[in-house]
């Protein structure tokens, strides 16, 4: 199917059924995004071609590049599971002299060349991958070798199969007081995506402005809806209401307001939705660490016994063997984070629960029973989860965990108390009393029953009860001049026994405590052992230059522990009532009518 003259448009994502739909473009890093060369090409990034498409690059004589990478390898298994792609082609637009080779790498790490094509002059072609019907897993990727200077204008995987459905996609972005982020993001997307005539009528951006201070003129191409701040839950619920009210949208994509992702991720998302035969598909973007762009924070997630468990946590996406592992289904993903989560509107039977933030995405996935799909190359970047942890977020996270456990988990008293108690003690015994109190408040609030959520849609009055850590930002020299510990230390059985019996030193006399402070990372393994017998502790926030100091306070620990014990007894006695209350009112609080009444 190769010809010197093009038989497809190399810029349109889809055309008539007789033409091709682009599924997966070969891309180079977008300027301004967190970058890691090995996520795009090997052995290094090729030279870009100025004043042309962002994916065009030049090879000098003798150079060769391979694209078996996170962003550019094509996932066989995930596209096979979509079900709508019966024919697959590799389309090329290249000038110069060289060679292109297409490879398949199986999950057993067996590499098979599928075909090779010589380049002489200018070539525009769409070469069918005849092996596609027999493939079931692994990765497809190409390499380009230059015999003389060679320019690659475009390379992409495409199909001539008709779409299962032509999506009308509403991208819902919830915004709160991050005007510069959302302005920059929309402008970048506007330039790369919304000005493409092929997408103008099928992808629409809706910004839910929870801070009511965003000028619509600053986000051209997006629909701005000013909204009362009921958090992410309320913002995304408002976006769903808008999409349903319009009656023209078929799919929705939830995204954070910084849209820190390759625009190609949105294009691939659109294509996956168009070719999926699964009505309950939930396409979850991989979350990467913006400080270490190659490190996975979450690629799908589980929720079990009140615990959120990110899947593929900490995996490095650079080695090819890791990419093959990332393609495999790990655990039982039941939800996707709302930094990037796409689904069909006709599969939505439950709206977000009014959590404000934290836990809303998990319960949304559980209630709607989405079949969670993740695809290499559909990803976004964010600060690490742990760098954002504070007393506020612990309150929000723990109350969501407990409420969801009562609503859709087993809802048993003792496991719930154990879950809350372990989190409480970890903070209290390490002298982070503000966080311990926040967990106690979460326990007490959930124990009020399901009506608590209806009467406390606005989180800000509740937030005033939670003390903030006094965080300070330090220069790098500070951390070089102080002995910060980031790994736990071995301890004897006797020391561990004394530590436990003394409540990590709280019951020891003053003369037995070290006066000199200990310096530790907040999420260091063996944290309690490192802080034992220290009167003062200096914590470093995760992946940041922020610190906060705490001091051992026996009376505060005992007061908090007594309050937690009383709350636990009350919770145990009330558990049958609470479980019944939450389960009977869950459908109401997750209903479309509930949110219509909220925004009436």
UniProtKB/TrEMBL annotation:
GO molecular function: transferase activity
Domain of life according to the entry: Bacteria
Record-annotated Galactofuranosyltransferase GlfT2 N-terminal domain positions: 23-154
InterPro entries in the cross-refs: GlfT2_N (IPR040492), Nucleotide-diphossugar_trans (IPR029044)
UniProt keyword Transferase, yes or no: yes
Assigned keywords, A-Z: Transferase
Protein name according to UniProt: Glycosyl transferase
Organism phylogeny: Bacteria, Pseudomonadati, Pseudomonadota, Alphaproteobacteria, Acetobacterales
């Amino acid at each position: 199917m190769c010809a010197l003259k093009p038989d497809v448009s190399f810029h349109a994502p889809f055309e008539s059924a007789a033409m091709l739909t682009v599924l997966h473009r070969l891309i180079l890093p977008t300027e301004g995004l967190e970058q890691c060369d090995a996520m795009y090409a090997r052995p290094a990034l090729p030279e870009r071609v100025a004043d042309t498409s962002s994916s065009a690059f030049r090879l000098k004589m003798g150079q060769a590049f391979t694209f078996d990478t996170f962003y550019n390898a094509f996932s066989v298994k995930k596209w096979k599971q979509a079900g709508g792609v019966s024919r697959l082609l590799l389309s090329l637009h290249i000038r110069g002299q060289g060679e292109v080779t297409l490879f398949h790498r199986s999950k057993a790490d067996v590499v098979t060349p599928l075909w090779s094509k010589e380049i002489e002059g200018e070539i525009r072609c769409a070469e069918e991958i005849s092996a596609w019907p027999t493939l079931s897993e692994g990765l497809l990727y190409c390499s380009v070798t230059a015999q003389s200077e060679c320019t690659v204008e475009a390379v992409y995987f495409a199909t001539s199969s008709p779409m299962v459905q032509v999506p009308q996609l509403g991208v819902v972005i919830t915004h709160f007081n991050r005007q510069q982020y959302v302005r920059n993001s929309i402008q970048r997307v506007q330039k790369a995506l919304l000005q493409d005539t092929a997408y103008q009528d099928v992808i629409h951006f809706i910004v839910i402005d929870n801070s009511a201070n965003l000028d619509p003129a600053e986000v051209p191409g997006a629909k701005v809806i000013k909204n009362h701040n009921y958090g992410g839950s309320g913002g995304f619920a408002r976006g769903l209401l808008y999409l349903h009210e319009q009656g023209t949208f078929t799919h929705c994509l939830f995204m954070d307001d910084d849209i820190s992702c390759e625009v190609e991720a949105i294009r691939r998302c659109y294509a996956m939705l168009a070719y999926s035969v699964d009505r309950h598909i939930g396409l979850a973007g991989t979350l990467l660490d913006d400080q270490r762009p190659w490190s996975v924070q979450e690629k799908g997630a589980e929720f079990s016994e009140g615990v959120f468990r990110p899947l593929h946590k900490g995996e490095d996406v650079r080695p090819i063997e890791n990419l093959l592992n990332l393609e495999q289904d790990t655990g039982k993903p039941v939800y996707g984070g709302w930094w990037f989560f796409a689904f069909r509107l006709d599969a939505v039977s439950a709206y977000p629960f009014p959590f404000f933030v934290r836990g809303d995405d998990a319960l949304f996935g559980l209630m709607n029973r989405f079949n969670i799909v993740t695809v290499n190359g559909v990803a976004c970047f964010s600060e690490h989860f742990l760098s954002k942890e504070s007393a506020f977020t612990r309150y929000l996270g723990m109350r969501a965990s407990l409420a969801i456990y009562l609503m859709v988990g087993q809802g048993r008293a003792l496991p719930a108390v154990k879950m809350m108690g372990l989190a409480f003690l970890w903070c209290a015994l390490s002298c982070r009393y503000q966080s311990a109190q926040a967990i106690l408040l979460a326990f007490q609030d959930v124990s009020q029953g399901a009506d608590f959520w209806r009467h406390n849609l606005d989180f800000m009055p509740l937030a005033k009860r939670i003390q903030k850590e006094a965080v300070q930002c330090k220069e790098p020299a500070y951390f070089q001049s102080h002995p910060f510990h980031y790994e736990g230390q071995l301890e004897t059985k006797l020391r561990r026994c004394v530590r436990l019996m003394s409540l990590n030193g709280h019951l020891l006399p003053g003369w037995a405590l070290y006066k000199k402070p200990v310096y530790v990372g907040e999420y260091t393994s063996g944290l309690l052992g490192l802080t034992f017998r220290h009167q003062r502790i200096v914590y470093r926030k995760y992946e940041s230059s922020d610190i906060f100091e705490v001091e051992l306070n026996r009376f505060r620990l005992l007061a908090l522990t007594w309050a937690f014990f009383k709350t636990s007894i009350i919770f145990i006695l009330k558990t049958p009532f609470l479980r019944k209350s939450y389960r009977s009112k869950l459908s109401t609080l997750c209903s479309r009518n509930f949110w219509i009444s909220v925004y009436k």
